Every structure is written in structure tokens, then in C-alpha cells.
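tl;dr need the bound structure. longer version: we got a ligand (D-mannose) that a collaborator sent over and nobodys looked at where it sits. i said id run it. heres the input, straight from their email, havent touched it
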Amino acid sequence: MQMTLRWYGSKFDTVTLSQIRQIPGVTGVITTLYDTVPGEAWAPEKIRALRKEVEAAGLTIAGIESVNVSDAIKVGAPERDAHIENYIKTLEALGREDIHMVCYNFMPVFDWTRTELARKRPDGSTVLAYTQAAVDALDPEEMFSSINGDMNGAVMPGWEPERMAKVKELFELYKDVDAEKLFENLVCFLQKIMPVCDKYDINMAIHPDDPAWSVFGLPRIINNKENILRLMRAVDNKHNGVTFCAGSYGTDLRNDLPGIIRALEGRVHFAHVRNLKFNTPDDFEEAAHLSSDGSFDMYEIMKALYETGFDGPIRPDHGRMIWGEVAMPGYGLYDRALGAAYLNGLWEAIDKAKKRGI
Ligand code: DNO
């Protein structure tokens, strides 16, 4: 595996490449061209410039998170074919720059949903949190304004103000799209892009729905072992793979996280490893990465990755806001650096124990 950190680019991130370079064991970044519009093709020269900037800092681009899929592709609107053509052009351009992993999601309207961006924990840190009661009490627009104030001046991916201004239109677009239709549209998208992925050896890695159930009545299709395996079978190509995200599959306590990893052997191309602390099954907060701080066994998660031969990029995920840092919620430097060091420690211990036959 390659330990990485997500980095939003020098224009948008408070964390710098030189800081990332100093986290022990972190050798790459997961990044994106943040100011692109889903449906448009990425300019090859911008990808090249980004790559040069990252390499000049002594790091590599270990993958892209995300090349976003447009709503037209998700709902199967008339512009779908043109948007898929553009997606293919983007993949070609990434392949030519030697980038071989692309994370994306197929969630309708919202990328991920949290109801609080700065819930205070007993140790004084603040974290992202979700409580179903808050979702049930608000409509999507109200929810956006209620969390907008907590963004520390950052624009959160999936919650861009321009997008939220169109929230009603977006809901309208999805009104006839049920889970089956969404799944069909996803399969159609993947079938069309597989040839370019085969040509450039690009691993597509679908991010699960977060949380793993329907919010505001919108369909969710990538939320448990059965559904993700159905997608793997529907487009049975190694390049049709998965982002294993512990914090997203883990929102549903019925999901056995190491079991999902093992069932997906050979198809996990990217891993987001983080911990959640459940107060009730409907209320959770994003804890420190350490097993004992939350509800998941991080050792078992890392062991399942190790034992299934996972060799893609991995990253610590949303960190707590600690030590007075002001950054995009979930994406500060300090707690993610602690997370990377901890996950590297688990990996080293698992690796050595295996090699010594312990
Ligand atoms: C949240 C992230 C998601 C993820 C996308 C992938 O912090 O895990 O926004 O990047 O769903 O397309």
C-alpha cells in the first residue's frame, strides 16, 4: 500500500505539500482539479502542471479524488453521452500523466451528508457528526444553511454554494430515478469507460454512499456488501473497483467492515480508513483513528486489507480539529497526520508478524 493524504490544491487547501512531505511514511497525495465542472473534460495542461507541482515537493499523485460524475450521467439525461465522452477524455489525459486511480461516487444530489461540522468531544476537539433526528427535522436547503456557518471559510466538496442554490432543481431531476434506474445508469457509465481504463490501466474506485442509507428520500445503491458485489459482477472487469471507505460503510452498524474488504479481494483500489464513535445507531461522530476512541477495530480493518493483498493508495480520513487548527472540517493537518502514523504502525506490525510467522 501507499500511504497518502488528500490535498485540495494550493489554491484551496490550508495544508501545504511541504507539510505533507514531513509526515513519516506519507509518499503521495490524492488530489483533484477542484475548479472543474462535472461533465466537462479536464485540460491536459492543468493535469500536467498539478503533477509537476506535486513532484517538485517530493511526492507523487497517487490518485484522483474525484473526477465527479455529472447529474446528467447519473439520471440518464440527454447530455449523458456528451458528458461520458468528456469523462473519457479526462481519463485519457490522466492516463497519459501516469495517473492510474480515480475515485468517484454515484450519490444523487449530495455527495456526503453530515448534520454537524464542529461537534465538541470530551477532549475539546471538534468533529463532524451525524444525527438522523436533525435530517428528519430539516429540508435540504435548511440543512445547508445550518452547517454553512461551520465550514471555516472552506468550500466543502459536494456542498458548493452554487450547487446548493440549485437544490430544488436537483431534486426535481431525480424525481423519477429510483435505485434500479440509478444502478442501470451506473452500469451504462462503467461499460462505456472500461475500454479507456483498460488501455491506460486506470482503476476506477467507487466511493460508497455516506451515510449508507437514503437521506431526504433519495436512492442509495452503494451501501453494503450485497450491493457493491452486485456492481462488481455487473461490470466484471478489474478496473471496475472500489474505494473501501470505513467511515461510510461503517455508518450502518450491520456492515461487517473486514468482511466487506475480504469479499472484494482484488477489487479494492483505494482505502479511506477512519473511525466513528456511535452514541446510538442513529447518531455518530467522527472519532480519532485509534480503535479505542471509536466503535471500529482498526487492526482488523488493516489486517483484512493486508491479507487480501491490497496494494493501492490508502489515506487517513476526516480528522478531528485539534490544537487550535483552523481548516476545512475533517481536512486539517494535525489529526490526519496522527492517523497516518497510527495506520502505518498497524501495517508495520501486521507485516512483521506475518513475515516472522507469528
Ligand atoms: C468526504 C469524501 C467524499 C468523497 C467523494 C468521492 O469527505 O469522502 O467527498 O471524496 O464521495 O467521490
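gonna send this back to them w/ a short note. The chain has a mean pLDDT of 95.
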